[in-house]
Amino acid sequence: MEMMLRNMFQSLGKSRSANRLAKKYGLRFGAARFVAGETIKQSIDAVSGLNKDGRIATLDHLGEFVFSEEEATLSADMCVQTLDAIASSGVQSNLSLKMTSLGLDISRELCVNNMKRILNRARQYGNFVRIDMEDYAHCQVSLDIYRELREEFDNVGIVIQAYLFRTEQDIQDLSALSANLRLVKGAYKESPQVAFPEKKDVDENYKKIIQMHLKNGHYTAVASHDEAIINFTKQFVSENGISRDQFEFQMLYGICEEMQKQLVKEGYRVRVYVPYGVDWFGYFMRRLAERPANAWFVLKNMFK
């Protein structure tokens, strides 16, 4: 039953018609638990609340259904405006983005030009931009563009997914760049030809790449709500004398709030991934696919 629900949510997340319907009805059906709002102001207010209890953030203007150069440019504009809002408000946040929202599927040149515009603005403010990793079909081109951008910018990082077979080699290759990486398990449905199908294998590979990247001396964002992974990381850095300035824990907005606050109390850096925007549906469906038990929020809100 759980696998059936997971597959259903993943399929819905890729549906254009479902996305259009979601836009029409707004942040209903429980999505407001995971999405900070549809406007920049709402997102800044959410980050301000997090900052008050010691959590920092990364803001993500959601957008996954970009089919024209004009839409890609508008998405890049929103990223720049988000950086402006972070700077003017004084909140502690950097920026996360998906390169498909910047036109990657339309033109690599268009995407790279949009990325450079965003990174230049971020550099003016002394801010940092994280490239979210998407599905396997976009993995290699994302890494290629990241390497190209690093030739000009040092304020950009990328995400690496533990469930892919290629990940260990990618970690080794990126070490030469002293890459700032967010390490995640992975949330897309992938073929067993390219990804570990069993959770236990994903978990073991996740632990391995956390160790690798930390041992290489590079900044590591461990993005997980799995208490076993968090405790593993805490023990590993303690036993190996790794400074708390070299890593942070990252969690999603609206998930494991008490764990986030407890980690802050223990003196760890905690960054919350705060998504906002009108194109929230695909993101919301992936959160439900990761943990189908969250679907009861959808059902509860349908009858309000």
Automatic annotation (TrEMBL):
Enzyme Commission code: 1.5.5.2
Keywords recorded for this protein, A-Z: FAD, Flavoprotein, Nucleotide-binding, Oxidoreductase, Proline metabolism
Annotated catalysed reactions: L-proline + a quinone = (S)-1-pyrroline-5-carboxylate + a quinol + H(+)
Cross-referenced Pfam families: Pro_dh (PF01619)
Cofactors, names only: FAD
SUPFAM superfamilies, per the entry: FAD-linked oxidoreductase
The protein's annotated pathway: Amino-acid degradation; L-proline degradation into L-glutamate; L-glutamate from L-proline: step 1/2
Gene3D superfamilies xref list: 3.20.20.220
Positions of the Proline dehydrogenase domain: 46-298
Protein's recorded name: proline dehydrogenase
Organism from which the protein derives: Paenibacillus phytorum
Lineage: Bacteria, Bacillati, Bacillota, Bacilli, Bacillales
